[in-house]
Amino acid sequence: MTDFSLASLRAAAAMVHARMPPTPQYAWPLLAARTGCDLWVKHENHLPTGAFKARGAVTYIDWLRRTHPQVSGIITATRGNHGQAQARAATAAGLGITILVPHGNAQEKNAAMRAFGATLIEHGHDFDSAKAEAMRLSQEQGLYMVPPYHEELVRGVASYGLELFDAVADIDTVYVPVGCGSGLCGTIAARDALGLKTKVVGVVSAHVDAAKRSFEEGRLIASPTAHTFADGVAVCTPVQAALDYFGPRADRFVAVTDDEVAHAIRVYWEDTHNLAEGAGAVALAALIQEKQTMAGKRVAVILSGGNGDRSQMAEILGGATPRVHQDMRKAI
After folding, report:
1. Is the dihedral of CA 270, 256, 171, 245 positive or negative?
2. What are the Cα distances from residue 179, in Å, to 33, 79, 148?
3. What is the mean pLDDT of residues 192-202?
4. Closest alpha carbon to 202 in 243, 263, 142
């Protein structure tokens, strides 16, 4: 198992901070009034790729260069944030990167991945098809397949937990979005390394709640569909290694509906003028759902990213909730 000691996490954070500055954590008074909490927002939407995954890509690519020096290129499948992060880190390290996305993927996300140096290939009509093609091409072309979850990704992501806990003392509870689990595991790793008693709560979509059910039953359970516009948490099948880590360490899970997420996006805009993507708003949606039980406590929420599709954001800010076509599947 990767070393999640405080020394190891501090070293990973130093590596991350050499590539990007720490993100702020702000206590917004309008949000505090709305939720009845001493509420702090960790703004991962301020990272250079617009989402928290930029951190883990730095430590993962460093690990890859050290442990697999023969690798000259990597390949992965994504719907956006994971791909932007890996493209940025791989290009900086002199590695080629190929990214598979499904047909119909958001054009602005595709453009961002290309801008960070990726060769982009559209294949299939859902994430699973794109991932299968990425795996085939990795064998055919000798490219290293980057997974959506890896302990070295967790080490990098833990840097936002260290920043938050260093800046804000005595946090009772922190709400964390859960896709494949690196954010949740990284927050837990930082908390435990610092010896804190903060409760860490995982947040999933009520429409794709496999991670919640897996946590509660102690075994992997898959969701049959991923019909949510919050594509960063639309993971049908949890990662066993992530479940093994957060299973005994997370406090609990909360599931939020798309309507609750859309409301939270509007709240972020109204109260802070930050634009959160769907997955980026689930933590606030969970707190709003539980605000009566959390009243008066010091709470943090992770705004994990701000890379929402323009058409969806226009719909949401106009007061509606986007409805997802049935062939849209899990994303990282």
Report:
1. negative
2. 29, 12, 9
3. 98
4. 243
- DSSP class per residue in 107-164: HHHHHHHHHTTPEEEE-SSSHHHHHHHHHHHHHHHTPEEPPS--HHHHHHHHHHHHHH
Q: Which residues contact 273 (CB under 8 A, 6 or more apart)?
A: none
Question: What is the pLDDT at residue 326?
Answer: 52
Q: Are 149 and 181 in contact (CB under 8 A)?
A: yes
> Cα(190)–Cα(196) distance, rounded to whole angstroms?
9
312-321: Cβ within 8 A, 24+ apart? 312/229, 312/278, 313/265, 313/275, 316/262, 316/265, 316/266, 317/265, 317/266, 317/269, 319/266, 320/262, 321/229, 321/258, 321/259, 321/261, 321/262
Q: How far apart are CA 41 and CA 97, in angstroms?
A: 33
Residues in a beta bridge with 305: 51
As a whole number of angstroms, the distance between CA 60 and CA 56 comes to 6
Predicted pLDDT at 247: 96
Helix (H) or strand (E) holding 301: strand 298-303
Residues contacting residue 21 through CB under 8 Å, at least 6 positions apart: none
Across the chain, mean pLDDT equals: 94
Mind giving me the DSSP string for 164-217?
A: HHHHS----EEEEE-SSSHHHHHHHHHHHHHT---EEEEEEETTB-HHHHHHHH
**Helices 151-167 and 53-67, packing angle to 10 deg:** 140
Arithmetic mean of pLDDT, 77-90: 93
Q: What is d(CA 218, CA 206) in angstroms, rounded to the nearest whole number?
A: 18
The pTM score is: 0.95
Q: What 3-state DSSP class applies to 8?
A: helix
In angstroms, the CA 287 to CA 177 distance is 12
pLDDT at 330 > cutoff 60: no
Q: Which of 303, 293, 273 is nearest to 36 (CA)?
A: 293
For the record, the structure tokens of 295 come out as 């009243």
